[in-house]
Write a structure and sequence with these properties.
8 helices, about 375 residues, globular, two-stranded antiparallel ribbon
């Protein structure tokens, strides 16, 4: 296992510097791990007096006066929800959790009414990439504007002994940070200050981000309503989801970065020579089927052909009636199916199908589900 995890830091590759962005954003800062300071005043104890009432004569003719009201009490006004002032469009924030600060882009659709909690998609980029590149590659913001949901793109950190951004796949992968705690802090921030619907938080991601979405299924099933992994899924050895999570995965059969059939040979974008990586001995359809076993689905999936390049493997009779499907992309590379950038990145990432769309199809799938169903 140790070798597998060290290898993770070497092998998850995404769009590196293949994209760029000209988005204009607003910048804000939030801290998830600094408790608010409060002022506490301590009243002094009253002096103890001697009761001399027994020696004081009582004037029986005195009449107690009715108290005269001074003014009407001010009505209590509930504070406006923090989300009522949200501005539509993309905002850039910095969120600090446990001392680690991440750059995050939060998109709010123009249809937002200022009061209703919004369904929210967390979109995790791949190794070596960043939030702005994932925004362009997946194209989720334009769909969020059309459909009326919020989409959030965080940027990962670089480990001390690495050169590329990555999301942690187990706690001790990098002792200098804790990406699972960061995910918790991000979700808390979105619910408290961005009007995210706590029952409709969804996760998706590319490559290393797809692996991280799978980790959230294993360890944060109580917070994630549904998930979609693209070009990377794996079932942790100690995976014990607290509830069945609806799940989709997309993977190309000719992916040379994260091999479909577990060859263990990975060809990295920045190193064209194939390297042996124990972690990539995992067979992608088998990793997905382990989740189906967790969720009580029928052992054998039902295949259905979509277009000419895609076979969807549907798992049925799962616990709680959830849906699970694995998309096998014939001749597909290390790509995001349906991306508008596919043709431009074919030399870098391989062939990309347009028979399915991991963004449109992923949202259609996830948006069916809520934690309170």
């Amino acid at each position: 296992m140790t070798h597998r995890l060290i290898a993770v830091l070497l092998a998850f590759v995404l769009i590196a510097s293949a994209c760029s962005s000209n988005d204009s954003t607003d910048t804000a800062t939030a801290t998830a791990d600094s408790p608010a300071e409060t002022d506490e005043s301590t009243a002094s104890e009253p002096d103890v007096a001697t009761d001399d009432s027994a020696d004081t004569p009582v004037d029986e003719t005195a009449v107690e006066a009715d108290p005269t009201p001074t003014s009407e009490p001010e009505p209590t006004v509930a504070p406006e929800p923090a989300c009522s002032a949200l501005e539509p469009g993309t905002s850039e924030i910095e969120l600090t959790v446990n001392g680690d600060t991440h750059q995050i882009f939060v998109f709010v659709p123009s249809s937002y009414d200022g009061a209703t909690p919004m369904p929210t998609v967390l979109n995790w980029h791949g190794r070596g990439s960043n939030a702005l590149e994932q925004i362009q590659y997946a194209g989720y913001e334009s769909l969020a504007e059309e459909e009326g949901f919020m989409v959030v793109h965080p940027t990962a950190l670089v480990s001390p002994e690495d050169t590329a951004t990555t999301w942690e796949l187990i706690d001790d992968q990098d002792e200098t940070r804790d990406d699972l705690s960061f995910a918790d802090g991000l979700i808390d921030e979105l619910i408290a200050n961005w009007c995210a619907d706590a029952n409709r938080i969804y996760t998706t991601g590319m490559s290393n981000g797809g692996f991280f979405s799978a980790r959230l299924i294993c360890e944060r099933a109580d917070r994630i309503a549904a998930a979609v992994s693209v070009a990377g899924t794996y079932h942790l050895d100690d995976c014990e989801p607290s509830r069945p999570v609806p799940y989709l995965a997309f993977h190309g059969t000719d992916d040379v970065v994260v091999p479909f059939n577990g060859s263990g040979q990975s060809t990295l974008v920045d190193d064209p020579d194939a390297v042996s990586v124990e972690f990539f001995e995992q067979v992608m359809p088998d990793e997905f089927s382990e989740f189906a076993v967790d969720f009580g689905c029928d052992a054998e999936a039902t295949p259905e052909t979509i277009g000419t390049e895609v076979i969807r493997h549907d798992y049925t009779n799962c616990d709680n009636g959830i849906a699970m499907s694995f998309f096998e992309i014939t001749d597909g590379g290390h790509t995001w199916p349906g991306s508008a950038l596919g043709a431009a990145l074919v030399d870098l990432l391989g062939y990309q199908t347009m028979d399915v769309d991991a963004t449109v199809g992923g949202w259609e799938f996830m948006s069916q589900f809520s934690l309170d169903d």
